[in-house]
Each structure stands twice: as C-alpha cells, then as structure tokens.
Amino acid sequence: MALAKNHSHEHVFLSASHDDNARRTRWVVVLTLVMMVGEIAAGYVTGSMALLADGFHMATHAGALGIAAAAYSFARRNANNSRFSFGTGKVGDLAGFASALILMLVALGIGVESLIRLFQPTQVAFGEATLIAVVGLLVNIVSALVLSGGHPAHQHDHHDHGHRHAHGHSHGGDNNLRSAYVHVLADALTSVLAIAALLAGRYLGWVWLDPVMGIVGAAVIAKWSVGLIRQSANVLLDVTDDQVAEEIRDVLQADGDVQITDLHVWKVGPDARAAIVSVLAKVEVTADAIRERLSVVHEVSHLTIEYRIA
The pTM is what? Predict the structure, then answer.
C-alpha cells in the first residue's frame, strides 16, 4: 500500500476575502455600538423606556457582531499555528454557530415579550417609538451595505463540466459573515415591522398590531437562526460535501481502471475542502496519475490519497 500526501504543508484555508470581511464586520460593530450608546444615553436623559429597551436590545447584537469580529482576528492571527491540524478556516463557523444561538435567544425574548403585551397591552409613545425604529432601520441599512460591499448579497453557483464556481458579491461559504449579516437583517426586519405597527396604532388605533408584528418578527428571526445553526453545525461536524464527493467519483472512475474503496470530503474553510481518497487501481495507474486526475476538482485544497494495486 502506498500513501501519497500533499507536498505542501501549509494549512491556511481562510477565505480569499477574509481580511476584507473582517474590516467590514469591525465597521458594523462600531456602528452598532454607537447606536446602542446613543439610545441608552438618550433613554436615561428623556426617561424613555422605549429608548432604553431598544438600546439594550442593540447590545445583544453588538455582542454577537463582536464575536464575529473576534473570530476573524483569531483565525488570521493563528492561521499558521501548527496546533490547528487543518488550520483555522472553521473558526468562523464556530463563531457563526454561537452567534446563531444568540439570535435564537433574541427571537425567543421578542416572542415572549410580544405575547405578554398582546394580552396585557401597555401604553405606547407612538411618535417617539417610531423615530427610534426609523433611526434603527437606517443604521441597519448602512450596516447591511457595509457587510455586502455595497451590493445586495447573493451567490450564483455555475455548473460547467461538473465544476462549481462561485461568482458575484456574496458571503459564499463564510458562515461568520453570514451570521453578522443575519443579525443586521433581523434588526432591520424588527424595525420595519415596528414602523408599520406603530403607524397603524397611531393613525388607525390598532394597538394590537404592535405585539402581533413582534410575534411575526420573532418567528422569522427564529427560522433564520435555525438555518444558520444547521449550516455552521454541518461544517463543525465535518458533514460530507456530497457535490464535491460525487465529482471526485465521476472523475476517478470514468475510465474503469480505478475503484474508490473509501472517500471523505469535508469543509476546512469557507472556500476550501479536504479529501481523503482510498483507491484500488490497476498497476499501470500510479498515485501521481490519480492526483493529476483530481487536480480538476478545484474545491479540494488538501488531498490525501491512499493507493493500492488491484
């Protein structure tokens, strides 16, 4: 049995846009902190509970965004640390998972408070609360633009001859940036729903709409957080990348001279996969030839081949 390994011992699997994403996230943390401090200070000066409540609500998002910023810094600082066998490419997924849990708690808090207010209505300062919601929405729009680089976040996967390429301005596989973006979207959603409910309450007398909108917002945010938890957990648990695994099978077994006996493909970074391929090959097929065949699978950044002659 011959064991062929990647000749390069570097294990830096950070996204190509890692440093840019880190810079964007830091700016959003600053924006969120400024908004938070401003609301809390104004709340104490004016005695407004609405301002204070929204300010402390912003604090939870500032904390989550701070986790994202810290993760980028840690991943870059330890990118070449030999203690991490496959580098620090998954640190962002760990941060994204933690951030998603915080988002779930935020959704739970909003939902519980909204239910309480639905059955025990409280007096609402519509004018003041609407102003807060509008300012919060503007801050979140700016934050979303910063995180997406001034472009709407989207991703297109183009399939060409079995190969996948990501194009456009997107979060790609960066669950850390995705978690920051979802926090901003969640805050923007609550602001939009709050504005609609407050205007309806002020001009139509529909006071009940405010807590109902809160419940709707909590449900949507909870759904987003569950999706983010699932995506980041899949990476943390080394779930098989079925699409890349299938591509490897197609490439290696197309000529019928190689049989795959074991295959592992998993993500080690936002845009990087590692693969361990065990093959049973005819004598004329060398380990180097197998490695050359797999060079077209561009998603694989770290390849180990276990080779046996049939």
Answer: 0.75
